[in-house]
Design goal:
The chain is an all-alpha fold and 172 residues long. 69% of the residues lie in helices and 0% in strands. The protein contains 10 helices and no strands.
């Protein structure tokens, strides 16, 4: 749930909208749980619902998202929650807090298609295959976007890196 919220926050850039988007994601997951194919990646399925909801709700229209009682979502989450958690919440918080404002701003300033693959790969830890499935494009496109996004970030953060003692590969 925290990974979904983190991704939603990066997409919407607003805490309330991110919370609404996560809520809408779980509502849709609950409604369409019969469409989920058992044995497939549930986390990727939820991320895809979140991304599609973001596109449909926050970019194409201004109508308010559906709401549901928090207790219902919490109860639903407890029933589908995976018993083994891959990353701890503390580990995730430490990583996210380690990003300086300048880095976060650089990521946020990327065009959406590049920002999405960087967040999913470098921050959320999805594989290229999972990202390709999630954003519904060939794996080569994921690799290309990730490469271009990283080059854009490197250019935006060159001064930041030098100020912290990192070599940027440029003649200094």
């Amino acid at each position: 749930m925290s990974a979904l919220y983190s991704f939603a926050l990066r997409l919407t850039r607003d805490q309330e909208d991110a919370a609404d988007l996560v809520q809408e994601t779980f509502l849709k997951a609950f409604r369409f749980f019969d469409k989920f194919e058992r044995g497939t990646n549930c986390k990727a399925w939820l991320f895809r619902i979140l991304k599609n909801s973001y596109i449909n709700t926050f970019r194409r229209s201004s109508k308010a998202p559906d709401t549901v009682e928090y207790d219902v979502i919490e109860e639903f989450y407890e029933t589908i929650r995976d018993s083994s958690v891959e990353t701890s919440v503390l580990e995730e918080q430490v990583f996210h807090n380690a990003l300086d404002d300048e880095v976060a701003q650089a990521v946020a300033s990327l065009p959406e298609e590049f920002r999405t693959v960087v967040i999913l790969c470098d921050i959320e830890g999805f594989t290229y295959e999972e990202i390709a499935e999630f954003i519904d494009c060939p794996i080569g496109t994921v690799r290309s976007r990730l490469h271009r996004a990283r080059k854009l970030l490197a250019a935006k953060l060159a001064d930041y890196a030098r100020a912290r003692g990192f070599s940027t590969g440029e003649s200094e």
